[in-house]
Each structure stands twice: as C-alpha cells, then as structure tokens.
Amino acid sequence: MRSTATASAVPAMEPVEAPAYAPARKSGVVLAKPTVGPTLAAGGAAKFADNGGPVIEIARVQLVYWGSAWASNPPPTPSANQVTGAVENMLSGSYMTGLAQYRQIGRGYLLGATVYGASNPPNNFTDSDVSNFLKARIADGTLPSLDADNQNLYLVIMPQGVNNQNSGFIGEHTYYVDPAGKHVHFGWITNGGTLNGVTSILSHELVESVTDPEGSAITGVAGTCTQGGWCEIGDVCYINSVVDGTTVQKYYSNNDSGCIAPVWPALNFPISGVQWRGTLPPSATITWFTYNWPEYYFVLWDVVPTTLGPGGPEVKSRVKVERASGAYITYWIEVTNLTNRQVDIEGRYVILDR
Amino acid sequence: MAYGVQFRGRLQPNQTQRWFTYNWPSNYDVAWMVVPTDAQPGGAHVTCDVALERAANNTFTYWLTVQNLTSDSFDFEARYNFLN
Predict the structure, then answer these.
(1) Which CATH architecture has domain A48-260?
(2) Span A21-36, mean pLDDT?
(3) Which of A181, A332, B10, B77 could form a disulfide with A320 if both were Cys (CB 3.0 to 4.6 A apart)?
C-alpha cells in the first residue's frame, strides 16, 4: 500500500518561523548498537589508523551499468534491477553501521541507477577507461554531477566476461580529478554472472571507498596487509556473509579486533523512556539537546508536564534535528511554558523502529 | 511497523518548503521524521510540521512543511513509519 504514495513539491505557503535562541541544555544518550558477527582474536592493537584524509560520511551511491548487455532482452543474470535491489538493501540495512567507529561514517543511500548501453567497456579495461567514461557521462548529463559536499560515489558494474587488464583484480576503487579540481570517487566491479558474486565485490569496494576514498584516511598500520596498493578495511576480510538478505563481504573492525558484517540487534520495538526532566519558569521557552542517537533509529518525542495544571494547556514542544555526523543525530527539543507559573516537565522518547 | 524513506529533497539556506505525498490509506497511522543527509555539526538543522488532508473517504494526503534552520543548504530525507 505504501508504494502508492508519491511526493511532489509545491511552493511554501506558510510563514517561516524563526529559530529558537533559548539556551540549550545538554543530556546524552548512547543506546544499543547493532550486534556484530563472529570476530577474530580479541584484545589486539588497532590494525587500522586514521591518517586524516577525506572520507565519505554519507555516501550518495550512483550505480552505473556499462554495456549493451545490461539492456538486452531477456536481461542478463544477474539483471541490473536485481543488483540495484540488493544494493538498496545493503545501504538501508545494518551492513554499514559498523563504520561509525571510523570517523562516524554512516549509512549511504542510493542516488540512482543508470544503464548505459550506447558503448561497451573494452575487455582488459583500465582505470582510465572507467574514469574517461564517467567524465563523459557526467559531462553529457547522463550521470549526476558532483554534489557540493563531494559525497557522491560512482560504482560502475561491468557486463559478464569483461575483465580488467590486471587479471588479479575483480574490483577496485580510486578517484580522478575533474577540471574544477574536485576529486571524483569511483569504483568498478566485474561480473562473474551471479548476484552474490557482484554484491560481494561491490560491498567490499563500498566500505573501502567511504573509509578511504583517496588512500589517505583509514588505512592499515604497517604489517596489516600483505598485498600491494592501499591497505584498507576490506583487504584483511575476504569472508562473505549474508546481511538483510544480501551477500556482502566482511570488513575489519578495530573495536571488535576482527572482521564484521553487522546485523541488527534483536530488540523489541517500540522502546520508550524518559530522556530528561526539567523546569520551565513562567512563560519561558527553553531548548534542550540530546546527542549520539544512531541515525537509523526512528525516534518520536513528547514533552509532558509533571506539575498539575488543570484548566488549560501547560506546555508545547517542537523537535529540531541535527545530523551531527554520518552515524549520529542530535535532537534539539524546544519547550514552551504556556502558563504564568513554573512548570516541571519530562521529555519522553519512543524509538519506533530501525 | 514498517519504516522507509518516502522522498529526498534539498533546502537552500533558511528556506521553508512544503511537500505533499498522497494516497496513504486512511486506516494507517503514520509518523514522519525529517533527517538531513549532509552532516553539519554545530546546531539544529531542520524542523518539520505535518498537516493532514482527507483527500478521499479512504485516503490521506500528508503535507510536510520542512524548514532549514541554518544558513547552509543541505539534502534531507523524509522517513515514514506506520504506527499500526
């Protein structure tokens, strides 16, 4: 039923309300986080260090199916639609939640999926073949251009049978510099003819791209990797797992001293409680904030008076949202005392789902 | 309960914009939450008011007025959750 609803934009018709300038007060919460899969040896030193380079905090993933085979009838196995559906599961599910430990990277989302059959990738293609293809498709408007915050990640999926010039590589991510000097982050994924194979490689490139898009962010300390090139969190975890119905590769977690593919914790929703209590002077408006709420929780807020006041409304509240990082939300809750006497309140939350 | 993203949009600095989404079954109670998808630590970014239209005997249209509280533009997503 929900798929019947669509969104459209219309001009704003209501007056803009001014933001609150009341002092903020602080209360913190860290709720349960997803459990993780089996780990390797515990208690070891961190294998991966943050070198300070750029990361992609909330990836806007643009899938690109390059080659006429993707548009054939009947469609190939796997089809572009099958891969796109699996990637949507990967992005909206729990898989990326373990990346919060790396500079609070959060889950990404699917910006779009484009089948481009007007040219074919050459067999034994190179990184330059892919970057030149992307440059042309961005320039001609086939693909969206970079966003202001440079959170786009272009993932090019090859037709079955088309391989990289380096026979040992089945997927890779890197970047190129566009004429404006911006770094365009992209990856390519070869196709062995199975959905699970494609999503496994793609998941590897996804988590490595967001944590280390340019080889200068989250990389292994000396001795972590045995192969050449950038040493990244997927390079020590060539282990598949199924998360939210999609085959993915595990990635290394410093927090767990091992390879993880996070799954949602077994929680019984809704989860409710009192987050804070406070006092409002007569006719006052105060804004409180509460932070470190995982972005994947759907949270509702309610402020109720604990001071008896029959005869009329006592308080009203308004919730404002701050995306403090890729992984966490801060809620700002503005509470107004509608009476001319002091009122005690409590701020209640309900986590509906994740 | 079921939880999903109904639409994504972008707000210019200090902009208020209204969106509507229609054909929601009237026997469903729906909660809405608007979340920026650009991280900008430092203060509240967005607030949302929800208004309801009984468009037909069995359907609702939701009108979401989303307000950018900052002087920066950002992307956001509107999430819904069925309460029943």
Answers:
(1) 3-Layer(aba) Sandwich (3.40)
(2) 36
(3) A332
How many whole angstroms separate alpha carbon A156 and alpha carbon A248? 17
What are the residue boundaries of the structural domains of chain A, listed by start?
20-32+266-353, 48-260
Which residue has tokens 């915050």? A149
Task: Reply yes or no on whether the pLDDT at B30 is more than 50.
Answer: yes
Q: What band does A88 get if pLDDT is binned at 50, 70 and 90?
A: very high
Q: Is 80 exceeded by the pLDDT of residue A252?
A: yes
**Amino acid letter, residue A199:** T
Specify the CATH number of the domain A20-32+266-353: 2.60.120
- Residue A280 · residue A337 · CB < 8 Å: yes
**pTM of the predicted protein model:** 0.89
Residue of B nearest to A109 (CA): B37
pLDDT above 60 (res A42):
no
Rounded Cα distance, B51 and B64, in Å: 6
Q: In this predicted complex, what is the ipTM?
A: 0.95
CB-side exposure of A151: number of CA atoms within 13 Å?
A: 20
Can you give the pLDDT at residue A167?
Answer: 79
Percent pLDDT > 90 in chain A is 83
3-class DSSP state of A350: strand
Supply the angle between the helices A195-211 and A80-92 in degrees, to the nearest 10: 40
- Sorted by where each begins, the domain ranges of chain B are 3-82
User: What average pLDDT does the structure give for chain B?
Assistant: 95
Q: How far apart are CA B38 and CA B74, in angstroms?
A: 6
Three-class secondary structure of residue A262 per DSSP: coil
A-B Cβ pairs (cutoff 8 Å, strict): 132
Q: Does the pLDDT value for residue A32 go beyond 90?
A: no
Whether B17 and chain A come into contact, CB under 8 Å, resolves to yes
What pLDDT does residue A168 have? Answer: 82
Instruction: Determine, for residues B31 and A300 on separate chains, whether the beta-carbon distance falls below 8 Å.
Output: yes
Structure tokens at A337: 């005392």
